[in-house]
Amino acid sequence: MKRILMLGGSMAQVSAIKHAKKLGLEVILCDYLPDNPGQYYADRFYQVSTTDKEAILQVAIKERINGIVAYASDPAAPTAAYVGNKLGLPSNPYESVLTLCRKDLFRRFLKENGFNTPKSESFTGIGDALDFFHECGDKVIVKPVDSSGSKGVRIVDNDEDLIEAFEKALEIAREQIVAVEQVVDSKFKVVLAGDGFVYNGELKMYCPLNSHRNPKCNPLVPVGTSFPPVFSTESIAQVSSEIQRALSILGVRQGGINLDIIVDSFDRPYLIEIGPRNGGNLIPEQTRLITGIDMIDLTIKSAMGMSLGQIPEVRSSKIIASHVIHSRIDGILKGIEFSDYLQSKIIHKLIYKKNGDRVEKFNGANQALGIIMMEFSTVEEMFDTLERIYDRQILLVYSN
Fold first, then answer.
1. pLDDT tens across 127-163, in order?
2. How does pLDDT run across 22-39, given as a tens digit for each residue?
3. What 3-state class would DSSP assign to 112?
4. Distance CA 369, CA 338 (A)
5. Cβ(299)–Cβ(71) below 8 Å
6. pTM higher than 0.70 for the full model?
7. Can you tell me the distance from the alpha carbon of 117 to that of 139, in angstroms, rounded to the nearest whole number?
8. Which fold has domain 191-399?
9. Which phi and psi (to 5°) does residue 181 adopt?
10. Which part of the chain is CATH 3.30.1490.20?
11. How far apart are CA 214 and CA 58, in angstroms?
12. Do 345 and 376 touch, CB atoms closer than 8 A?
């Protein structure tokens, strides 16, 4: 039996573990949390941090693995590449994966290769960061260079908030480096997002999605995605071309990628993120519901060197959205209720929290309470529901 090493066993990663088992693979799991749910589906579990490259390499050697996957995990993606390169397994170049995962390295790469990119610098101390902020103008984004799930990311427009945001970002950043960059204003209320898949160095498929935000929490943190995209066919084609150019320069050969692109008022695409892994918030599951293409299947088979067959083009007339259930305040969860209307639209539901659990105001993907997928009859109905899902009591989250 062939063995696959999966890095990360959170609730959102369980679907990949279960699919690997379905393919007849023996699953070895690593996660630093002792109570992760993925261990109950894996064949063997090691409590090892997925960012500890050498420790993961030793597990891989001991288990004589045939493939490795960091499913929906930015921090673990460089580890997967490192181990894959060391053992000669299907993988992407470690330095390229690290460039995509580190915000400072990625911004430098974009600038050096002529891509549209916001003015950005990285700092270890607040003094130089303040000077750069004064050069930039009225507002900037502060972010740890190596965080995931939008943790520690914040827009600020004054010195006091910059100092506070910088200190919090520094607490999160493993490399103790914080990026400060100018804000690119989007042409739309949504960001162009979604997952793609790379095979033999080519972007074989890309399912474009609208990424929604909740300005009442953190305007930078995604609260769901929707299809079809509001962006023009020309914009999406231009974005796909720029993504392919970046992948070719970096030598990325295979696997899922997660994308965030801002299209400005002049229709110029800014590649905010090309994550070298499948998207979080169940985006692969949503992609399958929209297109019938199983990104989890492609990812695992690619990592194992298995045949993928013909990857179809993305074509769909479906109207499907996801929503990340979240709280606007800190407190104790008392309940989550869905209106009869919303219940009739839900086609998939995954709840992470239970009544009595502590919840926090939504500032990052790790604070999600769950996620739902919904199918609608019209695009107008979809956007109206998503924009007012809490205000119209379509979805209720009780916490105090």
1. 999 999 999 878 999 999 988 777 889 999 999 999 9
2. 999 999 999 999 999 999
3. helix
4. 14
5. yes
6. yes
7. 16
8. D-amino Acid Aminotransferase; Chain A, domain 1 (3.30.470)
9. -145, 155
10. 119-182
11. 42
12. yes
